[in-house]
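Ticket #4471: structure export looks truncated?
Reporter: QA, pipeline team
Priority: medium

Steps to reproduce: submit the single chain below to the structure queue and open the exported record.
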Amino acid sequence: MRRRTVTSGTSGGLEDALDALAPAARDEAAPTPPGRQQEQQDMRTEFAFELPRGYVDDEGRVHRQGSMRLATARDELRPQIDLRVKENPAYLSVVLLSQVITRLGSITDVHAGVVERMYATDVAFLQDFYRRINSEGHTHAAVTCPLCHGSFEVDLSGGRLGES
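Actual output as written to the record:
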């Protein structure tokens, strides 16, 4: 295994270091055993969701359905070098969500400006959705009925209130 030295020069810093390390990691990766190939093909990397309120674009259209992909280490490192995050650490979730949301209604270019203009309830929903798919790998939650105390599972990825 080769050792690489990263220095902070006048170039892009962390971004350039991540780009330089990516090809080396790919070259040094071991081939996938045949038994694991099917397991990797079955791994789900993108999850559909439905926003509680919906994003209203400049033309007044409401976008509620979307999809979010699993985050990579790079997705979580990139906001650390963003000047907006350095000035206001609370902006981290806006930048992070804009990187992992792949589609929002008919919008395929979801950038920080789109996330900024979302309602707070939708941003809170997306933050929880991000945590669920990246920590737990699914969008299901175990709940207990307050009336009958019966336990069951609901899918938090979408649907109207009261539906599972």
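Status: closed, not a bug. The export was complete when the record was re-opened. Leaving a note from the reviewer for reference: The chain has a mean pLDDT of 79.
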